[in-house]
Amino acid sequence: MSQGIGARVPLPILKYDVFLSFRGEDTRQFFTTKLHAMLQQKGLATFIDNERLMRGDVISQGLLRAIEESLVSVVILSENYASSTWCLDELQKIIELRKEFGRAIFPVFYGVDPSEVRHQRGSFEVAFAKYEEVYKGNREKVRRWRDALADVANTSGWDSREYSHDAELIQTIVEAVWINLRPKIPSTIHMLQGVDTKVEDLDKEARIGLDKLYNTEIKCGCIIL
């Protein structure tokens, strides 16, 4: 059973290579959708929550479980990221898993300055001014969100403003994630239970700096490659 935010969890069985944390209204239209597709094409089982716009404000246990079951997380920090308590709860969980299990985090500062995230300035300041009022009786909750943002902002990542177009940034992210995950993918596959897996050698599709690429075909109702 998945544990709540802040609760120590046993080492979970891994189902996904990558978890995407993002603010749908900011980046879903192109950036996140394209990034998800490119990661999938690379053979990485990537979790994306396609139903978040249809639910309420309380993060679901299923979503927290998906974070636990992912090897790494890509966090897309955009202008309205902090205005979503879902995103902040996701980020808090992601940070906790890095501290407990060493899970890698790949931050993407999409149209925002890392310092705005680190110190909660600009749109992040506006969001937290609201939270300080709404959660007067739970200051600790707000503090944990602030700490999570500061933590992720101090993690090496990418600033979208340094790239001429999104496609270039997406390709850079995918290659970095692949290089990080490549040595771990075989062990991840063996952890999958009740899943038919097949690994094929795809030398012909090797990219710059990579001498071999593995494509995993996973037949499961919740993972589609």
TrEMBL record:
The keyword NADP does not apply. Pfam families: TIR (PF01582). GO terms for molecular function: NAD+ nucleosidase activity, cyclic ADP-ribose generating. The keyword GTP-binding does not apply. GO terms for biological process: signal transduction. Residues 14-185 form the TIR domain. Keywords: Hydrolase, NAD. It catalyses: NAD(+) + H2O = ADP-D-ribose + nicotinamide + H(+). It is an enzyme of class 3 (hydrolase). Its EC number is 3.2.2.6. PANTHER family: TIR DOMAIN-CONTAINING PROTEIN (PTHR32009:SF39), TMV RESISTANCE PROTEIN N-LIKE (PTHR32009). This is ADP-ribosyl cyclase/cyclic ADP-ribose hydrolase.
